[in-house]
Design goal:
Number of helices: 6
Helix content: 25-40%
Radius of gyration: 15 Å
Shape: globular
Number of strands: 6
Structural class: alpha/beta
CATH topology: Rossmann fold
């Protein structure tokens, strides 16, 4: 079985901008490449699990999301880091109804587990919202980090709250 590093996108990989859909607005968070390289070198597969309700809301298209994702993956590849797959939930409960993939549900993580034979108990998730941590716990991931760059969150179900990706 494989171990995995699961990453939320907005707020962990890139600076959060509401409904980010353009390459020119994408800013990587300090330390993300180093974090990924560290875990890749330890044999972890790397996955992005991201809610993208902007698609259901009509703020951007799935094609826009795919273009941005392809660019992001190339930026990682240019630094010697392979993103094994990006899982995304394009739904919004008020528009699309209930789904199994939108965090805090664990659908995207469980899809990765099935597709890549992931040992979830020995995998890691990094998120910036409690719903990311809840998805990890539901999926059976034992180690999770809540990335809180502003250092305002004091309570979380995460293994640890960090204000820098370099702390992980």
């Amino acid at each position: 079985m494989n171990r995995a590093l699961f990453l939320d996108r907005d707020g962990v990989i890139n600076v959060e901008i509401n409904y980010l859909s353009k390459v020119e607005d994408f800013v990587f968070i300090n330390g993300i490449f180093e974090l990924c390289k560290k875990y890749q070198d330890r044999g972890y597969l790397i996955f992005v699990v991201t809610n993208q309700s902007g698609i259901a809301r009509g703020f951007y298209s799935q094609s826009d999301f795919n273009t941005l994702t392809t660019w992001m993956i190339k930026e990682f590849l240019d630094k010697g880091i392979k993103i094994n797959k990006v899982y995304f939930c394009p739904h919004h409960p008020e528009i699309s109804g209930d789904c199994a993939c939108r965090k805090p549900k664990a659908g995207m993580i469980l899809d990765a587990q099935r597709e890549f034979d992931i040992d979830l108990e020995n995998s890691i998730l990094v998120g910036d919202k409690e719903r990311d941590i809840e998805a990890a716990i539901t999926a059976g991931i034992k180690e999770s980090y809540l990335f809180d760059e502003k250092d305002i969150c004091k309570i979380s179900k995460a293994t640890k709250i960090v204000s820098s990706l370099m702390e992980i």
